[in-house]
Specification:
Blueprint: H1 7-26, H2 31-38, H3 42-49, H4 56-66, H5 70-73
Length: 75
């Protein structure tokens, strides 16, 4: 994610990453297991949870893998 983004955007991305991590932990999955279920790389899952490089398509596959509504991850 470019460093030139406003602080509010950076914080919103971090909060979204936190919600994804919390949902993953609630589902009792490791980052590696979530990566397997979503066919994303573990480093991609790690980056998403850090609030960096979140793509809409990633949110869709993660929500499906965690069996949660997309809205739960992007509130």
């Amino acid at each position: 994610m470019p460093e030139a983004l406003p602080e509010w955007i950076r914080l919103a991305c971090q909060q979204q990453g936190d919600r994804i991590r919390e949902a993953r932990e609630h589902a009792n999955l490791t980052q590696e297991k979530l990566a397997e279920k979503t066919e994303l790389g573990r480093s991609t899952v790690q980056r998403i949870e850090a609030g960096s490089g979140i793509k809409y398509v990633h949110l869709l596959v993660i929500a499906r893998a965690l069996e949660v509504p997309l809205s739960e991850l992007v509130e």
